[in-house]
């Protein structure tokens, strides 16, 4: 069951959008002032007081937006990882004891075609997926596939 959750916008994103808007307004004001003046010496005050700070605000806003989106994405990934790894069985909650059993215990190893990780067959990332195929030992030995950090499989000796 999905729970409704309000999405909050990171304050850095608000600051980025505000800096972009203020920079755009300053650039437009500077352009309008420069376009009305014929002589370069009368255009310099508009350039110095509006256009240059406006361009700096646009650059700062772009940096803030990029940083804010990266931070937001990292927080979402951490939340998803926490939900996946910290899943406890219902009977563990009733007894008041934390779950100590590993997340996946199967000895069969699977991989997703085109993927970069190999998993236990009961790993939540591949369990129930029909496109999962048995692990090719050559790929594991060559280092093209790495172990899943969630189910932590061990390499089977063939």
What would you say this structure looks like, in words?
This protein has about 160 residues and is α+β, with helices and mostly antiparallel strands. Helices cover about 55% and strands about 5% of the residues. The protein has four helices and four strands, in the order αααβββαβ. It has helices at about 10-35, 40-85, 90-95, 135-140; strands at about 110, 115-120, 135, 145. Strands 3-1-2-4 form a four-stranded mixed β-sheet, with no helix packed on it. α1 (about 10-35) packs antiparallel against α2 (about 40-85). The radius of gyration is 27 Å and the shape is rod-shaped. The model is unreliable at about 1-5 (pLDDT under 50).
Coarse morphology: rod-shaped
> What pattern of helices and strands is seen along the backbone?
HHHEEEHE
The chain-level mean pLDDT equals 77
Strand content: 5-15%
Please tally the helical runs, counting DSSP H or I stretches of 4 or more residues: 4
Distance between the termini: 42 Å
Biggest β-sheet strands, sense, barrel: 4 strands, mixed
**Count of DSSP strands:** 4
Structural class: alpha+beta
Helix coverage percent: 40-55%
What is the CA-based Rg, rounded?
A: 27 Å
Residue stretches low in confidence (pLDDT < 50, at least 5 long) are 1-6
Report strand order across the widest sheet.
3-1-2-4
